Amino acid sequence: MRLTGRIDYAVRAAVELAARQGYVKLEEVAEAQALPTEYVRAAMRDLRRAGIVASRRGHDGGYALSRDAAQTTLADIIRAVDGPLTEVRGERPDEVNYRGAAEPLRDVWLALRAHERVVLEQVTLASIIKDDLPEVVRREV
Fold first, then answer.
1. If DSSP codes are grouped into helix, strand and coil, which group holds residue 27?
2. pLDDT tens track of the chain, all 141 residues?
3. Which of 10, 41, 98, 112 is the most buried (most CB within 10 A)?
């Protein structure tokens, strides 16, 4: 799995929102995480479309999580900004077919997707801000 800057920025911005109460100005999120404001703006746009964050205009406006941090996983965020967790040439691993000696590769890609899900669907924003990562993560570190 390749974690792009887009994914990293979106995850860090979401974690920052989870650690705060109420609406937070975009600039405050960017500054707190030392991120470029425009990249955070793009990430928030994707997260808002996915229903992960809400935005509000005005003096007391900004961005806030639109659902409980304990119910928002890293997988949710990655899918919102980058699409499916695992793709092979733009296809889902279960839709890829190989011939001959390469045929077992499909099973490798399927296993990779399953292992990514095991981690990314268990790690929530709340577990990150509380530094209470699930056993599946602690076991691998």
1. helix
2. 778 899 999 999 999 999 998 999 999 999 999 999 999 999 999 999 999 999 999 988 999 999 999 999 999 999 999 988 877 887 888 888 889 999 999 899 899 889 899 999 999 999 999 999 999 888 766
3. 10
**Six-digit token string for 42:** 């793009």
Token output for 94? 């279960």
Rounded to whole angstroms, how far apart are CA atoms 29 and 110? 36
Domains within the chain, CATH numbers bracketed = 5-140 (1.10.10.10)
**Could you tell me the pTM of the whole model?**
0.88
Identity (one letter) of the amino acid at 97?
N
Report the run of H or E that residue 63 belongs to, with start and end: strand 62-65
